[in-house]
Amino acid sequence: MKLNDLEKLSKREERPFWKTLENLDPDISVKWVTNFSSSESVAVSWCLSRLFERIWDLESPERAEYIRVLFCELQRIEWGMIQLARILNKLDLKTDGERYHYLIEVIRQLKEELGLSSVRPQVVAIGGVSMDLSIGLEKKILAFVSNFKETLSQVREGLKTKKIKTELSGVLPLDRYRLESIAWGGPVAHASGSIWDMRVLEPYSIYEDMDIELFSKVSRRTVPVGDAFRRWCAIDFQIDQSLEICKRILIRMPKGLVRNEEKRSHQTESGHSNFVWVEGCSGPIFAGIYNGRIRVSSSITRGWFGMKKNLSELSSESIEIGLSTLGINIEELGLINELA
After folding, report:
1. What gap in Å lies between CA 221 and CA 115, rounded to an integer?
2. 177/41 Cα distance (integer angstroms)
3. 27-to-16, 128, 266, 275, 284 alpha-carbon distances in Å
4. Residue 134's pLDDT is what?
5. Fold of 3-258+272-324
6. How many angstroms separate the CA atoms of 149 and 153, rounded?
7. CB 300 within 8 A of CB 315
8. Domain boundaries, the chain
9. Structure confidence by residue, pLDDT tens digits, 89-147
């Protein structure tokens, strides 16, 4: 993807918040931008921070990068659990859904114990992060990861897997090339055989050392079309990957500063591209400056506008199930009447 592609994508998701964003102080804007997508608030604020760091030629300390990735992956786990719980509720598997909701609350309790908002944790700052982790907190998170993995395994054993597969198979099949044309990545794209994941395609921060897999051994035989059941499997697999990444981060966590406080310059080097990315929970988030204006583009909003035609061809019941496997919250996007 190139910078001019961001302008094309942005036309699909013009939103009033951009004008407000452009008038805010950069440090405030990095916190305020979490309103853009509450379910991907860490990735969105990280992406905008990377943009300012690129403009000002600031380098975030190594420890800060570890913490950024840690919280981004924790939010990816929460996002995945929310999507799977939503799917279970749509399939009328209420008991299973309640078990997933319990685990979601466990994640939110951890964030509160870390002194963060349970909805939109604001941990990223320009030049690093706004908080450090004590040895005690690092141990607490590591214990959480181990316990969560064990509890999730027990919950999975009790799932009505046969019903899930029967109900989701064949629902809203999406073509890999269609998804890639609108830069929709994440588990939705992985389910259709796409390797579109910025952590793998264009590794940034410390992701190059994380050995990320996009497909489970069961689904290695990728096909160019993925249905709702394959998306369930892809989201489920991503949760395991994120848990493993969190474990590796906490074991390898270096010591040092968590924020670069160097004097900022508003000048960029000649030919320096003002275009960055971060892999959000549902796919890539891009940020750039085009014609002097800040632009932010998320996978969820690109996906919605790119998939409306596919959704309009489904029955109302299939639409709800289909949306639940895409990670699209139409209420949050203000698109509740789009399907009427």
Report:
1. 43
2. 28
3. 20, 11, 14, 18, 22
4. 93
5. Cytochrome-c3 Hydrogenase; chain B (1.10.645)
6. 6
7. no
8. 3-258+272-324
9. 989 999 999 999 999 999 999 988 887 776 667 899 999 999 999 999 999 999 999 99
The pLDDT of residue 339 is 39
Instruction: Please name the residues in contact with 282: beta carbons below 8 A apart, sequence gap of 6 or more.
Output: 39, 40, 79, 185, 186, 187, 188, 298, 299, 300, 303, 327
Distance, CA of 319 to CA of 304 (rounded, Å): 12
pLDDT (tens digit per residue) in 241-273: 999 999 999 999 999 999 998 866 655 444 455
Contacts of residue 75, defined as CB under 8 A and 6 or more positions apart, other chains included, come to 39, 40, 41, 42, 43, 121, 281
C-alpha distances in angstroms, 327 versus 144, 188, 189, 280? 25, 8, 12, 12
Residue 292 in contact with residue 191, Cβ under 8 Å? Answer: no
Q: How many whole angstroms separate alpha carbon 126 and alpha carbon 53?
A: 7
Residues of the chain with pLDDT under 70: 1-18, 118-120, 214-223, 263-273, 299-320, 322, 328-340
Q: How far apart are CA 203 and CA 206, in angstroms?
A: 8
Question: If DSSP codes are grouped into helix, strand and coil, which group holds residue 294?
Answer: strand
User: Which pLDDT does position 12 carry in this prediction?
Assistant: 47
pTM reported for the whole predicted model: 0.86
Q: How far is CA 258 from the centre of its chain?
A: 22
What distances in angstroms separate CA 263 from CA 56, 59, 131, 260, 275, one per listed residue? 9, 12, 20, 9, 22
**Number of residues that this document lists for the chain:** 340
What would the two tokens of residue 320 be? 């709800």
Q: According to the model, what pLDDT value does residue 305 have?
A: 56
Q: What is the C-alpha separation between 273 and 5, in angstroms, rounded?
A: 13
Q: Tell me, what DSSP letter sits at residue 268? A: -
> Which two three-digit tokens encode residue 113?
């114990």
Owner of token pair 């699909």: 12
